[in-house]
Predict the structure.
Amino acid sequence: MRIFLIGFMGCGKSTMGRSLASMLNLTFIDLDTFIEGKYFKTVPQIFAEEGESEFRKKEHKALEEVALFDDVIVATGGGAPCFFDNVEVMNNAGYCIFLDVATESLVKRLIHSKTERPLIKGKSPDELKTFIDALMQKRRPFYEKAKYILKGIELHAADVIAVVKN
């Protein structure tokens, strides 16, 4: 079984992925962490030293690699579905699930996030909402190519399990 979780930053891909992996006895893979281990650089370092285009090539290659693994749950970065044929790779390899969380929830989560996210650093709640709305408008068409869409304010592991068990 392969489950791919996609969606905007802060939607809960990694948290949900870890929980699901534990519940379903699968291996959890955070795609960004996988890339960092493969190239011995952080994602911000790759962006700074090689640019976004090179990062996206590395990301695509890593995605194709993990799409061959068995019994995994993969949390992608928020931008991963928007490049190359990444959504098709995930749809063809297993369950690609878009975690579609309301903007208001994303703002609350990201404002209080302990993870440093360069794209949103220093933004006020209003600026963050505007940023999310604008970027989501660009990304939504890619996210919605996923075979499965879970929509809500708060999504739970049981919601994903219901998708893969049916």
